[in-house]
Design goal:
This protein is mainly α and 482 residues long. The chain has two domains: 204 residues, no CATH class; 251 residues, no CATH class. The chain contains 25 helices and no strands. Helix 2 runs parallel beside helix 17, helix 4 crosses helix 15 and helix 12 runs antiparallel to helix 13. The protein is globular and about 75 Å long.
Length: 482
């Protein structure tokens, strides 16, 4: 009797931690706004995870089993954590090397405020299509665009929305993207058939975003006078050796990503390249008239990798824009991710997540309802599991048999996973993607969320299609067999 297996969790048990998290997060966001993820959100996640664990223990589960689930979940985020650290290091080194200052210098001269937002959208979409990585795009191009926005008086929140919209357009469609490969793999669909089917929701969403940002740019009134951008350019030119050669580290990064070199390896190589360019192009600036040669240069680069770059140009705007980066700058974000993984691990290890998903699938009749339910489950998984990969895998596993039983083509499921799982991940402050984008772009998730137009439009379009039963493809192989 004492060794009997604990029963599966009831729906009420599964709902309590999620409802508690929603309530706590609402209070945290209302009370702390932009500072919500600096500690208060982490407390809410840990507390909600503890409630989930307590309910599971009351049902008979052992704490040691729950711990194993938490450890496995946190382990799944290890690569994301390492990428965060390397992105922090890369930003610091590229600032020291003059790569980001060069991008800002030329960008303020080329990008007209009247086309700035759509230009940012298109540029990030192209780079993300080429690299397959929204994170790399935000870290390499997004940071420079944020600097240009602040220098010219454009809205940082709207710029972040344009960057994220473009970055996730490419992340969603590029055959080099992890999620673009993962979604069809989980659903059992063919990659390029999946990409072609994605166009039905992705193209209208990016066109809506393009129209929105074009209108926003045309009506925008930059708050910074033209003299500020000019003064910024002069400060950059007088403190850094600005040269077109400093585009090379960015080109090397894009080439490595395009050739499918793993993201972590690409970033580590890019840090090394940035360090070499810092020694070549910014030697005098780094030494500051001091003697010491190569050992001093290496020491300064080492400190920037660890703690970030601190600008002292004499221009307040330039110093504000360029003082950032370093591994230490990502520690609060990593704290948020680990806290989110604790909550997710408790929910999954206790079986509460499975109970929630099963409740979502009950009583569905129409094919469109099943597609919508799969997509909404992926979105809910982004809220609970706090990671887009887990969202795609969990939802794909849960619905694969249901789609097969109903004679629905596998691309219906793979597209739903992308429309709701991939693109909504940066809209959740405690999701790995939301935390990363906020830390990298320097804008709180809650602030850029209304302007991430592509990411909002994609699932809405998918829901409309499902309601109208439009572009819901039957399984032709199953029909032929029948």
């Amino acid at each position: 009797m004492g060794n009997s297996e604990p029963s599966a969790p009831k729906l009420l048990e599964a709902i309590i931690p999620v409802a508690g998290l929603a309530l706590l997060m609402g209070l945290v966001i209302a009370a702390f706004r932009d500072d919500a993820t600096g500690g208060p959100a982490q407390v809410a996640l840990m507390a909600s995870g503890a409630v989930a664990g307590l309910l599971a223990i009351m049902r008979g589960l052992r704490w040691s089993e729950l711990e194993k689930g938490v450890i496995a979940t946190i382990s799944s985020a290890t690569v994301a954590i390492l990428i965060l650290l390397t992105i922090g290091a890369l930003i610091g080194v590229w600032l020291l090397a003059g790569v980001i200052p060069t991008l800002i210098f030329y960008g303020t001269q080329v990008l007209n405020p009247n086309v700035f937002y759509p230009s940012a959208l298109i540029l990030c979409a192209v780079v993300s299509l080429a690299t397959g990585s929204s994170w790399t795009t935000a870290g390499a191009i997004g940071v420079a665009l944020m600097g240009i926005a602040e220098a010219t008086g454009m809205s940082p929140a709207m710029t972040a929305g344009a960057v994220i919209s473009g970055a996730y357009f490419g992340d969603k469609l590029s055959p080099l993207s992890d999620t673009t490969n993962l979604a069809p793999a989980v659903a059992g669909a063919e990659l390029f058939e999946h990409i072609r089917f994605l166009l039905w929701t992705t193209v209208p969403a990016i066109l809506i975003a393009l129209v929105f940002f074009t209108i926003a740019a045309l009506v925008a009134e930059p708050s910074a006078p033209a003299e500020q951008a000019s003064a910024l350019g002069q400060a950059l030119a007088s403190n850094f050796n600005i040269s077109p050669w400093l585009f090379a580290p960015l080109v090397i990064l894009l080439v490595l990503a395009q050739r499918k070199v793993p993201a972590l390896a690409t970033l580590l190589i890019s840090i090394g390249v940035g360090a070499i360019f810092a020694i070549i192009f910014q030697r005098e600036m780094i030494l500051g008239g001091q003697e010491g040669g190569l050992p001093t240069l290496i020491r300064e680069i080492w400190l920037v990798i660890a703690s970030g770059y601190e600008a002292q140009t004499g221009n307040e705007v330039a110093d504000s824009l360029l003082s950032r980066g370093g591994m230490s700058s990502m520690l609060t974000t990593i704290w948020l991710i680990i806290s989110a993984m604790f909550f997710s691990g408790m929910m999954e290890g206790s079986g509460q997540l499975t109970t929630l998903v099963q409740a979502l699938t009950r009583g569905l009749q129409r094919a469109g309802s099943v597609v919508a339910s799969a997509g909404l489950t992926a979105f809910v998984a982004n809220l609970i599991a706090s990671d887009q990969y887990m969202s795609i895998v969990i939802s794909g596993r849960m619905y694969a048999d249901e789609f097969k039983r109903r004679g629905l083509a596998k691309v219906n499921l793979s597209r739903a996973l992308e429309d709701f799982g991939t693109v909504t991940s940066p809209l959740v402050p405690w999701n790995t993607c939301g935390a990363y984008m906020a830390a990298t772009l320097g804008v709180a998730t809650i602030s850029y969320l209304p302007f991430a137009v592509f990411n909002i439009a994609s699932p809405i379009i998918a829901l409309i299609y499902a309601a109208l039963h439009f572009q819901i493809r039957p399984d032709e192989e199953a029909v032929a067999t029948d």
